[in-house]
Amino acid sequence: MSTTNVQDAAQDMSQQAETTTAHETAAQSSQAPGSDVAPGGTTITDAPPDVIKMKGRNVDVFYGDKQALFDVDLDIGERQVTALIGPSGCGKSTFLRCLNRMNDTIDIARIEGDITLGEQDIYDPHIDVVELRARVGMIFQKPNPFPKSIFENIAYGPRIHGLADTKTDLEEIVVTSLQKAGLFEEVKDRLDAPGTGLSGGQQQRLCIARAIATSPEVLLMDEPCSALDPIATAKVEELIDELRENFTVVIVTHSMQQAARVSQRTAFFHLGILVEVGATDQIFTNPRDTRTRDYITGRFG
Amino acid sequence: MTDVAASPPAAGAPSQGQGLHTSDAARKRLKARYASEARFKFFGIAAVLTAAFFLVLLLSTIVGQAIPAFNQHYVTIPVDLSQESLDPNNEGEAVLRRVDYDAVVRNGLRSLFPYVESRGDRRTLGGLVSSGSAVRIRQAVLDDPDATIGQTSFAVPLDDVADLYFKGQVSEERFVETTGEASPTGTEGTIQILSTANDFRDLLADVKDFLGEQADEVERELASRERSLERAEIDIVSYRDRMPEEGADRREFFEDQVQILERGINGLNANIRDLTAELADLRARSTAAGADEVLTTELPSILVEINGGVVKASSINATAVEGEVIVPLTTTAAASGGDWSIREVVLPERNRKLDDRSLIYLDQLAAEERVERQFNMIFFSSGASREAELAGIWGAVVGSFFTMIVTLSLAFPLGVAAAIYLEEFAPKNRLTQLIEVNINNLAAVPSIVFGLLGLAVFLNTFGLPRSAPLVGGMVLALMTLPTIIIASRAALRAVPPSIREGALGVGASKLQTVLHHVLPLAMPGILTGTIIGMAQALGETAPLLMIGMVAFIVDIPSTPVDPSTVLPVQIFMWADFPEVLFRQKTSAAILVLLAFLVTMNALAVILRKRFERRW
User: Fold this and answer.
1) What is the pLDDT of residue B392?
2) Which one of A147, B102, B141, B346 has the fewest beta carbons within 10 angstroms of its own beta carbon?
3) How far apart are CA A247 and CA B115, in angstroms?
4) pLDDT digit string (tens) for B171-197?
5) Residue from the list B505, B509, B615 with its beta carbon closest to the beta carbon of A196
6) For B556-573, what is the mean pLDDT?
7) Which residues of A262-296 are buried (b: 16+ CB within 10 A; e: fewer)?
């Protein structure tokens, strides 16, 4: 895939932006946003995914009296990486946490609208949240391995979901998950060592292995590299690219380079509104909304 | 740090810059800051030192008081425990049980003191050993007849006062060097001992000094009586003066008052007369140097040891004493200087528990090497007793143990379950808020209120046994619950949300998340809170008084429903007893309780360190 091209394009864009900053700012202050900017709440959608895995329709999220998401419509394509970008507080993490009902754990959060996984409405009162979370795994911003051994960290999910009948099965799941997460070679001699003793990047890959051990269909990643150094980041990004073969991945990131490198589709959120969504190279080379353009050129956020 | 504070960098340096941070005003501010930091440091150190001083003072007082109680003196007496005398027909336990072991002890003691013949003296002799001696011998015979029957001697504990004598806590004693040749006039009864030198002169002077001190004391008392007299007289005069101005009824009242006062004055006058006479007598005796002095029980005792016997002086002059023979002398031969000795027991006999006779008997036992100092096993192995030397803490320790078991098994599961529900599952509404506030308030409720509750509910409504560790444990569990709940909730709250999210993220249910991940991580905090709550409960007295655990219980409890007492209540009871040994045992029991508390707190620290995990 043309990840490098997209990346280059993004860099080109930012260089270009630097030279034109003064001119554009002047233009913006004098006139209203350009004609191709959608009015607030209406999303510019380009190139819908071939196969839709998850679908959000008219999603509103409230934290108490404060509304955090406004009428979001977003499709997540199967076996591809969807990146959610946008400035802090724009609602991208909120949307991500709606996808496996993680927001349920916040007492004051209230969600309206429909989100489906396949054909199933995940907010259907009859659905079992535990089963949903087994199907939609999650990786967090800060690596959060359990304070147990590496083996136990990964074996925990399969064990509570009854995925392994025998100890051998369980060991196999652990090894496969570690291999898929690219961590097996580094830790194969010390599966009994505490997971918290690993380095930050290893811990995050351990969390990914833990998430894929329950064979989820979708993996949600909430800024998985923000606590990691560039080398660990590179490894995790490489891993995400590989995971695309088997999983549907949704990633929230603050790094536009990362979004450009790992994702096929990108959605840009701003102030609780999904402003624009489309193929990643299109968003980064030819954004149609000025807010998107301003954001990816580093004008704000 | 101190160096910096002592010499601010800008001090004395030429004022180069006049910038915002280098001007004179800035330097002044800097100086003021150093001064306030130094002040703060000083106050901090002073506070710490003050606290440490009082702690050391407290501990050293308790330890100083307690140390004598950890040892006890035993005296080995000859006993007749032969088969023939105990159980001539070999009938076994039934007969062995009925033997008069008091007589065994009594006869054993008497055989050591053949010269003690009068009833009163024999009673004194019998009082030297603990009244529990016979019981101990009986117990030994019944426990292990084969080993005990046939023994010819047995070590029995000394009475508490006798024990204190060997610990040197009865009176100060002084030995006087003898130089002259002393000749006693007899070997028994009342005799005189004449010395060729002035051997008794110093002692006589001592006695005179002592009389002088007594005279001073009488004089002070006299002065205070005289002041009372004066006041009464002034009052009478003032009543009399006001009488004509008052009405008839008031006048009658005044008459009554005057009569009362006059009676009082009569009493005071008689008192003053007596005291004046006593004072004159004491002064005369104390100033008449060299004059003979009669030694009453209000004066220091003087004991003369000569020719293998002991004489208790009843009157003294510079060269001779007259007194009663307590241990008969072997001969009336004259003893040369240094071969006989004089001992002064400074505290007057009337002011001590141990009379001179007992003291002499004990000296004889010690001289025969029959007295032995041992580690005080009785203190650690027996229950309560009215006899100080037989009282121990084991009953209270066992009672405390049962009480703690009941408290722990009720308060820990209930407290942790309540904390988990409130913290993790309960909806946040008015009701849970109300419960929360009430739990926090319960922690501040005075403990005696829980005792009243226990009395009203557990004893009167449920009809549970009084004085039982079961009820004590239930009451203390109520008292400990809020502590455990609050500590557990804090511990649960301290588990980072990332752990919960991680568990939820892999599809664990809420309950699984809490039980598998949150609770294990919160455990050290929960255990710390529990142990601190238990330590509090272990030291609690007031609520247990209300449910009757203050009863005097000799038996060691064997189940949680047997009547018993607990350590702090035992300490409370002993602190009330007047005997010196009980005072010491009070301190010793406090040390034992402190040891338990320190151990429990150390356990809390160790548990926290052991289970603490990083995340």
Assistant:
1) 92
2) B346
3) 108
4) 888 888 888 888 888 888 889 888 888
5) B615
6) 92
7) bbbbbbbbbebbbbbbbbbbbbbbebbbbbbbbbb
Question: Within 10 A of A109 (CB to CB), how many other CB atoms are there?
Answer: 18
Q: Which of A131, A140, A210 sits opposite B498 (nearest CB)?
A: A140
Neighbours of B288 (CB within 10 A): 12
Looking at the predicted structure, is the pLDDT value of residue B264 above 80?
A: yes
- ∠ CA A283-A285-A290, rounded to 5°: 65
Strand, helix or coil for residue B218 = helix
Which tokens hold the place of A275?
């402003």
CB contact under 8 A, B496 and A210: no
User: What's the pLDDT tens digit per position in B4-31?
Assistant: 444 444 444 444 557 788 888 889 999 9
Q: What count of Cα atoms within 13 Å lies in the side-chain half-sphere of residue B117?
A: 7
Who among A102, A147, A210 is closest to B613 (CB)?
Answer: A147
Return the residue matching tokens 């009953």: B395
| Residue B415: count of CB within 10 angstroms of its CB | 26
Pick the residue from chain A with its C-alpha nearest to B508: A130
Say whether B509 and A146 touch across the interface (CB within 8 A). Answer: no
AA identity, residue A178: L
B290 touches chain A (CB under 8 A): no
- SS3 annotation, A199-220: CHHHHHHHHHHHHHCCCCCEEE
- Using the beta-carbon criterion (under 8 Å), do B505 and A100 form an inter-chain contact? yes
Indicate the angle between helix axes A167-180 and A200-212, nearest 10 degrees. Answer: 130
SS3 A77: strand
Number of residues written out for chain A: 301
DSSP B458: I
Q: Calculate Rg over the CA atoms of chain B.
A: 37
CB burial of residue B259 (10 Å; 0-12, 13-18, 19+): exposed
Q: Where are the alpha helices (DSSP H) in B506-611?
A: 510-512, 519-538, 542-546, 567-574, 580-611
**Residue carrying structure tokens 């990332």:** B498
pLDDT one-digit tens code per residue, A172-216: 999 999 998 888 999 989 999 998 889 988 999 999 999 999 889
